[in-house]
Design brief:
Number of domains: 1
Largest sheet: 8 strands, mixed
Helix content: 25-40%
Enzyme class: hydrolase
CATH superfamily: Metal-dependent hydrolases
GO molecular function: allantoinase activity; dihydroorotase activity; metal ion binding
Number of helices: 13
Keywords: Hydrolase, Pyrimidine biosynthesis
GO biological process, one term: purine nucleobase catabolic process
Strand content: 15-25%
Pfam families: DHOase
Length: 423
Amino acid sequence: MTVFFENARLIDPEAGTETVGNLVVDGGIIAAIGQMQAPADARVIDCGGKCLAPGIVDIGVKIGEPGERHKESFRTAGLAAARGGVTTIIARPDTSPAIDTPETLEFVTRRAAEAPVRIRHMAALTKGRAGREMTEIGFLMDAGAIAFTDADHVCADTKVLSRAFTYARSLGALVLCHPQDPGLSKGAAVTSGKFASLRGLPAVSPMAERMGLDRDLALVEMTGVRYHADQITTARALPALSRAKAAGLPVTAGVSVHHLTLNEFDVGNYRTFFKLTPPLRSEDDRLAMVQALAEGVIDILCSMHTPADEESKRLPYEEAAAGAVGLETLLPAALRLYHAGSLDLPGLFRALALNPARLMGLPQGRLCEGSPADLVLFDPEAPFVLDRFTLASKSKNTPFDGARLTGKVLATFVGGVQVHGQA
C-alpha cells in the first residue's frame, strides 16, 4: 500500500532540519519527501501540522523471556514500544537463562516474531554473564546477535575481558559494557553524598564509574574493539570519554532518559520506583549529562527498560530490585529536554533514532528517500498526567507515575504499516 502523509512537521535528524511538507511511503520504504501531490491510489494521512520523525531505536531493553515472562513478554514489550514511538528494540541478554548460546538466541528470535515492532538481540559476552569464560562470539553472530554485553554484570577479571575484546575485535563485533568498578559499586543503592548519609543508605562514589570507564578505555586502546558504554551518568567520567574520542578510539556512549530528567533527590522517602542501576546522580551530574548529549560527547539516549514486578519493588529500599520501565515513557520524558531548550527536535532524534541505528549498522533512524518507513507521528505540545496502570507493559514500575508530561505519540508505523494510533 502507498501511504501519503501530508501537512507534517518533518524531523530529519541526519540533515538536522525541521520542515513542513509531505512524505510518500511505498512498499514499506520512504519513496519521496517534499511538496508533492498525493498519488492516486494512496492512503492519505493528514498530520495536521504535527511532527513526523524516524521511529526510535531503543538500545538496552530487557524483556523477560525466557525465564521471567511474568515481568514482560515480547508481545507486551512490543505493544509498549509501539505506543511509545519505538519501532526497533535492541534487547539485552540478561534473561534467565542468559542469552549466551545460539540455541537460546534462536529461541528468543522466534518468540520476538509476535511483537508488532522490530526486535534485534544482543548476546552475552561471557557465559552466564559470570565474567569467567567468553561466549562463542562467532557462532552467536552467525545466529543473529547484533552486539555483545553482560549488561550490568561487570567483568572483574581484566584478563578475561581483554581476551573477549580481542576476539570480538577480530570478528568486527560491537561490545557494550557497564562502566562501574565492581568492588566499589557492590551493594550500593544510591550515590554517595549528604542525601545518602541522611537516609542511611549504602552508597557508591561517582568515582566508581570513572574507574570502570578508565579500565575499559585502556582495554579498547590495547585491543581496538568497537566499544559502547551503555550508561554514562557522572561528570567525572566525561573527560576520559572526550579524550578517547579525540584520540580516534572506536568509542561511543549512551545515557538513560531517567538520568537526564531525574536526580538523587527524587528518591525522597525511599521511593523504590526511583531505584536504578546506576543510581540517580546529583543535579550537577544531570546537567552535565544534558550538556554532553547536546554537544555529542554522549551519542545515544535510551530507556534502559527494566521491568520489575510489584513483589520485587515493594521492599525496603536496599532490598528492592533496581530498574524502571521506559519504552512507553521514553519520548514524552525526553521531550522535557526539548521544552527546556536543551535540544531541538532533530538533535533529540539524532540521539533517539539515528545514532543508535548507525551504531548497530541498521538502515532505520533516518527520514530520507530509500529508508525504511519506520515512523512516529507525535504532538510535542500535548500535556497529560501519566497513570502507570494504563501502561502496556506487564510491569508498572515507572518513576513517572503521576508526573505531568508533555508530548503524546499519535501513531507509529513499522515498514509503512500502522502498529499504533488512530491516524
